[in-house]
Amino acid sequence: MPSVNIVNGKQIVVENLDLMQRVSRFLAKPFLQMWHHRELIQAILRRELRARFQGSAGGWLWAVVAPLVAIAVYTYAFTTNLQLPLADTFGNHRIAYALFIFSGIVVFNFFAEMAYRSPMLLHEYAHYIKQTIFPSDMLAVISMLRAMAYTIISIVVMLILQLIFTGGLPWTVLLIPLVFPPLMVFLVGLSWFLCAVGAFTRDAGYLMINIVPLFMFATPVFYPHNSLASPYNILIYGNALTGYIEVMRDIVLLGHLPNPLVYGWILFTAVTTFYFGYWFFDRYRNVIVDVI
Amino acid sequence: MSSSTSSEVVVRARHLGKAYQLYARRGDWLKQVMLGWWKTYYKPFWVLRDVDLDVHRGESIGILGRNGCGKSTLLQVICGMTLPSNGELRVTGRIAPVLALGATFDAELSGRENIMIGGAVMGLKRGDLLRKFDSIAEFAGIGDYMEQPVKHYSVGMRTRLAFAICAHVEAEILVVDEALAVGDAAFQRKCLDWIDSFRRQGTLLFVSHSMAEVRRLCTRAIWIEDGRIRAHGEPSEVIRAYHRALAMEKDDVHRFSAGA
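Above: the input entities. Below: the structure tokens describing the complete assembly.
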């Protein structure tokens, strides 16, 4: 029987756990929550995906058109009018440099959508959080899944164009599913942190709107990460997105296996961000209800 | 008093208090978050103080009080939406809040889609919802409007839809906050009948400004004023005392001020 027991503003759970049990419970908790609320996640996600293009005649077509147009514009801009010195180093296809940029942009846009939205997310769902018994931590998961849907469409479009124009795909493309679990976990953790901060102050939202476009230049989207001068080519890994973009380009464009060190770094940052974000959100969860 | 006083206690509150944090300056919340372990930067605003309450299985309790007296906060605390600041609270059983009916509706979506989401928020499985859909639609009785976006609904229709969803959530404790105020007489009667039948298996906490409803539905009444329980007992007695006080005390303009 479900039961709530609260004393002096603290939820009381009567149990004796040693450190190991408590750690493993903390590690499992976000995933158990996601499983427990799977039906709710599904229902809201379905609504959000439908709402995105509501009132537009094109509907889902927009999600396909956007990456197509982007790749076409990059191809045109960077190979005809604006001859970049780098453009030749990515093979002899005109589209190659566009695909190079786009593979970075896909990852960056996934991040950007989450970064823009997260600070406002709890305000957006304030009526649910205040009026119903609502698992507010699942909102970050839902918005990640929503952004993921568009990322997948973009990647599929990119792969199809690559197949058509360069005449083949490296077998390492099959490793794409390796890139996404850590990226999803990383972004959910980041989103939890931004959600909690954004609940207290709208400044977080404005900060993101200003900072994210600039952050794009600190991310190897338009240039390869290894083209940087000596200390910076290591420092750039401090930007967690670098690793994802590098792995993405390795497996999709170059047909290399990812550098295990880079992949290890990705996993490490993803897991630490995830649990830090969850810890932070959980810590302020009860205060958040009263401030939004 | 009801005959069930000896039965199991499903909601038990002792010295329950809830304070909201009022900040004098906009930036103070940040100091509170960063340095809260050292110093307090807010003025506590007590909306609930020292509430003692025992609700037994099968009881239905009416909660009276003027606007802003803390009724809704009490319900929110009992439902677990917000934590009490001090005191003890124990709730046993599945609780369904019917607060601010229809507030969670998405105006762009149709009634049908809102039922699916509202039901999911209430903890119903998709399969159950699909099975109960016809019954929910029949209860709401809004006909073809079910497929229209909720933004075209009148307030009364929204209430119908929202109550219809709530009536299909299998809860042991139902918490209803001024839910029926806007429905027409026929719908109100339908809701009251439903609540009547619910009371046979479940426990009810009920906020209303309609004394007739409280008298009809409740086995006990509680009158809350300034966040404290002022009177407690037989519905008709509490209602009489409440009415007497309302007639004596004018609607005070300073009632919502946070001062001492």
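Note for the figure: Chain B has two domains: 9-94+171-248, 106-159.
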